[in-house]
Amino acid sequence: MVRGAAAREHNGAMQRFDSPLVAAAMVDAVRAGARICRAVQATLSAGDSMKKDDKSPVTVADLATQAVVARRLAAAFPEVPLVGEEDSKVFEEGDGPSLVQTVLGWVRKEWPAASESDMRAAIDLGRGEGGARGRFFTLDPIDGTKGFLRGGQYAIALALIEDGRVVACVLGCPNLVTPNGATGAVLVAVRGAGTRLLPIDGDDHAGVAARVSTQGDPVKLRLCESVDPGHTDQSVSKAVLARLGVLAPSVRMDSQAKYAVLALGEGELYLRTPTKPGRSEWIWDHAAGVICVEESGGRVTDLDGKPLDFGTGRALTANRGIVGTNGVLHGRVLAAVKTA
Ligand code: AMP
Ligand code: MG
Description:
Layout: H1 4-14, H2 20-42, H3 48-51, H4 56-76, E1 82-84, H5 100-110, H6 116-123, E2 135-143, H7 145-149, E3 155-162, E4 165-177, E5 183-190, E6 194-198, E7 208-210, E8 223-225, H8 234-244, E9 251-252, H9 257-263, E10 269-272, H10 287-295, E11 299-301, E12 322-325, H11 330-339
Parallel strand pairs: 1-2, 8-9, 8-10
Antiparallel strand pairs: 2-3, 3-4, 4-5, 5-6, 6-7, 10-12, 11-12
The protein binds adenosine monophosphate and magnesium ion.
């Protein structure tokens, strides 16, 4: 048996970080997180928590999911840092102290031996800063919190970044209805190896290939955009659609499930335009979705047509907005964005 530094070196030599084996470990981590999210979501009675404006179920699921996913990643890839959205500081703020035991209860469903300090330490593995050099994971344990609370779309989004570029991802979308009629999907993308659609449950790691739509007629373009008008300037989207002469209805949904819709060929455009000048996007809100679309044959840039740079820390400070397409329509969309 190899121990300590020797073991790390041994494992390092064994791990090709762009390999399907790495993706398989990431899939298992996301599936464990999705089990927690679905169980917590099932405890919400429809619409109830939105009415009461009680955000605690999403806080609970967010923290529990980050703890469980981070712990699994640290066990499989101890040398790879994590940039996660959540931080255990939440337990010290507002009604945070009252949530500790509830979060721990959910964590123990997947990690029975976890103590409170194990859980806090696992959450805070996500304090990585990212950056331009080397390799790190980025995780949004629940992307689309509003969708989660209303029983709609949300995602568990995990990506691996190397030298500022996304090289692999697992995007879990527990409520997404796939083209084959199943509810729940996991999309796995590995740079140069394509995007695959896997079931959310079970241990199928092969799945089927995902491909973007081949639609080249802008009139038939289907836009996917945020439900929340504070997250994207919907008046710009309207102007872009008018410029392109689009007649097809748009789809509004929360979370990176929008990127999954593109990768599965059920939409042609993801558009995100800043509602406030100078606001940057968070890397964990896009890394997984971007590679899913690119590896299924699509294209993603910012509003100026620049590639997204994931090496700028926790936020995408070198880019402005997001344009994701099926590829064929990218040039026409960028031209329409410029003049909208
Ligand atoms: P979506 O579900 O696509 O609308 O995006 C959800 C994500 O939007 C959340 O995870 C937040 O990080 C992010 N977000 C929050 N405020 C803003 C904002 N003002 N502009 C853009 N994105 C935001
Ligand atoms: Mg998010």
